[in-house]
Amino acid sequence: xxxxxxxxxxxxxxxxxxxxxxxxxxxxxxxxxxxxxxxxxxxxxxxxxxxxxxxxxxxxxxxxxxxxxxxxxxxxxxxxxxxxxxxxxxxxxxxxxxxxxxxxxxxxxxxxxxxxxxxxxxxxxxxxxxxxxxxxxxxxxxxxxxxxxxxxxxxxxxxxxxxxxxxxxxxxxxxxxxxxxxxxxxxxxx
Length: 190
Known about the structure:
Blueprint: E1 10-13, H1 19-25, E2 28-31, H2 37-51, E3 56-59, E4 64-66, H3 70-74, E5 83-86, E6 88-93, E7 99-103, E8 113-116, H4 117-122, H5 134-144, E9 150-152, E10 159-163, H6 172-175, E11 179-181
Parallel strand pairs: 1-2, 5-9, 6-10
Antiparallel strand pairs: 3-8, 4-10, 5-8, 6-7, 7-11
């Protein structure tokens, strides 16, 4: 696996205690209030649009991880689709390492979602000013603007959503809906 792209990181943070972490890892950052989350995401997207040169913006959530191998599935899509991503994710219980694979089928998830610059030119505020239902409402906004998504299917575990006590949707919501799997993501508990 070799990433063939220049990747820059812009963190959209709400809490000042994360400034040190961004600086420690050399990440660019901008601060916006976290309420509602949809407004924060729009402000971050528009800040990136106005201040950076890029062809595609990949959106990540603070509790999500992708493996670099996901780019093997994405490589042929850059320059072809203006909006693409995945519908399947492995939810991991941070405290127990339990994991389930879950597929939303037709919804493009927030983690690893890619939008072209052209898409953002057309839809400046892709998210609604909400705290929940962000992926679905963004999907609706893009389709209403004539930007149709491509849903990437992949093998194995490449996209993770780590669930802890601070998540809007806890692990318990998915543990009986998803397919139990062995967690292949290695992380150390704090």
